[in-house]
Structures are given as structure tokens and as C-alpha cells.
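Late entry, evening session. Most of the bench is empty. Finally got around to the prediction I had been postponing all week. Sequence below, unchanged from the version circulated by S.P.
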Amino acid sequence: MKITVTGGSGFLGSHVADELSKRGHKVMIFDKKKSKWIRSDQKMFIGDILNPNDLENVIKNTDVVFHFAALADLDVAATRPLETAKVNIVGTINALIVSREHGGEEIYLC
């Protein structure tokens, strides 16, 4: 199965991506920064969750999307609440829309 993991460079996303790869799935990682832990059997896509075109490039023809992309740092959330809300809410909406239009049948919001 072809699976996209948004936020795949983060703690949770990277662990899910690794487990999916171990189970034989073709895994694409989407994040704003390159993963330090990317495996040789995974493909990395650098992009912005707020840019639907970036998402479309990785999600098209994907069977499943695991969505972990977000600003999770509580210090950032406290000092930049509007940016946090934009990334976490609009980013999730973008992931849902692009997944529905260009992806497979399943999206998991984590």
C-alpha cells in the first residue's frame, strides 16, 4: 500500500512511518524539514501544510494518509497562537481536502 505520513519528521509521525515501512508499505514522508531518521526505503517530500499544491504532489495516488503535521510545541502555541491555529486547523483542512480529491479512501487524523 502507498501511504503518506504528514508531519513524518516529528516524533510520532516518524515512528508510525517506520512501523509502516517495516510492514512492507511504500511510505512517503511530508514535512517542512527533512527527517533525521528517514529510512532508505522511504521517500521524503519537503513542503508546507498550508500550501495545497505541496500536499497534492505527495498525496496524489496515495491509498492512505496519516496526518500528524502540526505545531505541537506548547511554548510556540502560547507565544504565537494565531500561527499555531492556522497551521493546526487550516493545515488539517488542507490535508482533508487534498486527500479527498487526490488520495485514497482513508485518512487518519492523529
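Two things to note before I forget:
The CA atoms of residues 6 and 89 lie 14 Å apart.
Strands lie at 2-6, 26-31, 42-46, 64-67, 106-109.
Will write this up properly tomorrow.
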